[in-house]
Amino acid sequence: MRGNSTSRKPYVIVFNLSEAAPDIFLPLAFIVKTDRHGSPTYIQQRALPDTLGAFHLELTPKLKRLFELVEELDLETIEKHFCPPRRKVKPIGTLLEDQEVKKAVLIHVHRRLDEILRICVEQGYGISWEAERKSLVGDLLLEPSKQDLKPELFFERTREGVTYQLRLREGRQVWPIHTKDVTVLTNVPAWIIVGYRLYQVEHINGFMVKPFRQKDTIRIPRSSVRTYFKQFIFKVASKTDIIAEGFDVMQYNKLEACELEPVRLLFSEAWGLSVHMVYQLARFNWSDKKEQTTSLKMGEGQDEISILQVRRDKVAEGIYMAQVRKLGLVNQDGSYFQLPKDAEAEDLLFWLADRRKELEELGFRLRSPQWEGKPIALYRPSLQLNASQNNDWFDIHGEIELGPHRIPFLEIARYIKAENRYFPLPDGTFFLIPEEWMHRYREVVAFGRFKGDKLHLAKSQFTLLSELDIEAAAMVDVAEVEADFALPDGLRADLRPYQLDGVRWMVQHYQNDLGACLADDMGLGKTLQTIAVLLYAKERRATAAPAQVNSGAQLDLFSAPAPDMDFLKPLNALIILPASLIFNWMKEIDKFAPGLSVYNHTGPKRHTDVRLLSRFDVIITTYQTALRDIELLERMEFEYVVLDESQQIKNRESKVFQAVNKLNAGHKISLSGTPIENSLADLWSQMQFINPNLLGSFRFFKKEFITPIEKQQDDLKKDRLRTMVQPYLLRRTKEEVARDLPPLITKIFYSDMEAEQKKIYEKEKSAARNYLLENFLPNDPQYRIMVLQSLTKLRQMANHPALVLEDYGKESGKFKDVLEHWSVIRRAGHKALFFSSFVKYLELFRTQFQSEKQQFSWLTGSLKPEERQREIQKFESDPDIESFLISIKSGGTGLNLTAADYVFILDPWWNPTVEQQAIARAHRIGQDKQVIAVKFITRDSIEEKILALQDKKAQLAEDIIGNSGKMDFSREDLEYLLL
């Protein structure tokens, strides 16, 4: 309880004992203040689970148990407990008048007090004696003794009867009890206080001490000797040292056998060999220092008691001990013998099983081991385990040879799954399943499914077999895929090396009928890699049969496959994605795989005829549309189902998750830059979609992985989970594939307007077109200003109508898409520059970032030079500032922002040079990362025209918005912009 001033705790918990009734001492827990040396001083208040927090004391499991015991030993609780139901509660003094009740009360109290004392001594909690509020608790602390007291019994036979003495040995000192201040706390087991030291007394009951507190010798009359010895002495005589005078002595010294008994060592997982020397009437541990033992034998008469004395034969014992050491056993843990240090936990049992006959021939007796009261069979087990593939499952089967017994592995597996190591054998003994088996086969039986006499393991769980040296022969080797693989003929793209590796990887899973999750960083081409795999599947379908309607549905005349399906041989792939990605996917497929027929299954006029849907290679739809049309879609058999931005199904309880898992597909792919957003539960949802039951049920997954990893930081569980999902999750960061990337990647992302946004935009565009074309005056400066104002207004609405209409309360498609992109990139640890022509648009992002407590830098034309430099320095040096909002005019030149590796062009500028200069703020000398620039374009808006002008009519754009020279554009040019 004492400590130094630098590490002391200001408050500690002390358990105080006080006498509540004769032989009954009850505890209370107190919070006690400590002095500068760490010693307890004065009681502050009662210690209860609810009061610990205010004193910064932790409620550990052991402390919680102590509080429970203290509550059970509350005086009123005891009185209520031992009073009959619905009767008036009697005080403790009255209860103890009934001897039967007193006996029950003492057992109840002493058992709990024993547990309290043991925990306090073990955990280092202070125990005080009769402390009060004004007491200095440190002066009343009991000091636990490091060694138990050993009783010694002295008997002398006289004419009148027997005199009896009980003394206690502490180390080498033996002292009479009456010479000390002794308080007996408990009877069984015996705890006593001597002065302010706390002891346990071996072998005897505590109440045996009480008669000797006032006198040294007890005289037992002849008439009572037999009864007294029978009740009090014989129980402990064989366990303690006895010195007797005046009794007949019978001596024995013949060593009958050396007995070997395997026992589980107390503080380790290992087994040790207990060696005992067996004599008639006595057994000695080989290392016991006692040369003899004395016991008592009762005759027929009242005081006919004989002394039985066994003396050890050290020479005979030495011969046995030499043989023990010659066998290779070593004494390294107390008195126990073990195999050398490198041996596994159960190896000693197997060693005994192998050498049983040899040991018996040498004269040893071998006792069967007992563990938790069960007799353990001594056999070395032999296990043959195999696996055979049956469709999408592996059947695990094998046999265990155990001496004369043959046991199917499935029977043992059920015990391993139940974490029960005791397998009953026909002869009444138990096979103790080796700890190594419990660990090694635990996950196979935990993830496997018991069906009849078979243990099934999903094919996706083949990694579990690999670790058991069971070959999953049906798995296609990666090297074979690499050797045979060729990109499909219809692909119109040159893949970078890492993209080619990604396609090979997904093709391997395609050939093995296993799902895959491609989780590359944004901008690395997940869409292109997936298109290549779909084209591969299209060109190599095993059969020419068209997609079939789900056989579980009732077909009618209009549901039957069309007669030309054999000719078309459609792929029948379904791609489910957020609405904002539909146009981008369709554009990418048209660009890279024009041979694939694509159908956009969205909108009110979408097909509801399975025969029509079955004619396409690729059907693209949104998550919400798939949810609404799930009854239609689940009637089809898809070759592939692809989920883009698959974090959309992370909530396993969502209707979307449940819907996509109803779809029938031969193959599945999920695409996500962030497969784990908030919790490992996200990962379970992803894996459950691509490879059902790979990680077991969610309840099992939570117990097996989420709780140990997220709450306990269990590294072994992390490694296990990583091993199981690694074959199905491919993630490459931009940094990892930098050598395969060009210095700059520029991508265009198309956004769709929200319904209300589109309505306002079209109204404004019609008004501008009607007025400007009806009043076409290209040489009028005022007209030129009106053209510029109208085009600017349309550009702002394409960004967000709130830039024009102050009361606009709806969303913007592009604004929402930019935030989604930024969320993915930010979580991956990247920095980005946000460029816009409109400060007001940047202000919308600033407001959003502030609401989410995101730090950012800000640069517009209104900043002073020193403010400008401060913002740049913050962004470059502070890792917590991940975004930089910049107006394209004020920040397009003169900046060096190499901390960023993503550039967002929020709206296109007429002159592409301006955008290139903005991108060059990050993509410049000193940049050690690959830079990805994303241009956000609102579809069906003037932004698409600006994009086209950047390539085809740059001069026209300059003519319309330029400040010098005569504008040279025609009515047709203006119509093109306002079409």
Automatic annotation (TrEMBL):
<keyword id="KW-0347">Helicase</keyword>
<dbReference type="GO" id="GO:0004386">
    <property type="term" value="F:helicase activity"/>
</dbReference>
<keyword id="KW-0378">Hydrolase</keyword>
<dbReference type="GO" id="GO:0016787">
    <property type="term" value="F:hydrolase activity"/>
</dbReference>
<dbReference type="InterPro" id="IPR049730">
    <property type="entry name" value="SNF2/RAD54-like_C"/>
</dbReference>
<dbReference type="InterPro" id="IPR014001">
    <property type="entry name" value="Helicase_ATP-bd"/>
</dbReference>
<dbReference type="Pfam" id="PF00176">
    <property type="entry name" value="SNF2-rel_dom"/>
</dbReference>
<feature type="domain" description="Helicase C-terminal">
    <location>
        <begin position="817"/>
        <end position="975"/>
    </location>
</feature>
<dbReference type="InterPro" id="IPR000330">
    <property type="entry name" value="SNF2_N"/>
</dbReference>
<keyword id="KW-0067">ATP-binding</keyword>
<feature type="domain" description="Helicase ATP-binding">
    <location>
        <begin position="507"/>
        <end position="693"/>
    </location>
</feature>
<dbReference type="InterPro" id="IPR038718">
    <property type="entry name" value="SNF2-like_sf"/>
</dbReference>
<dbReference type="InterPro" id="IPR027417">
    <property type="entry name" value="P-loop_NTPase"/>
</dbReference>
<dbReference type="InterPro" id="IPR001650">
    <property type="entry name" value="Helicase_C-like"/>
</dbReference>
<protein>
    <submittedName>
        <fullName>Helicase SNF2</fullName>
    </submittedName>
</protein>
<keyword id="KW-0547">Nucleotide-binding</keyword>
<dbReference type="Pfam" id="PF00271">
    <property type="entry name" value="Helicase_C"/>
</dbReference>
<dbReference type="GO" id="GO:0005524">
    <property type="term" value="F:ATP binding"/>
</dbReference>
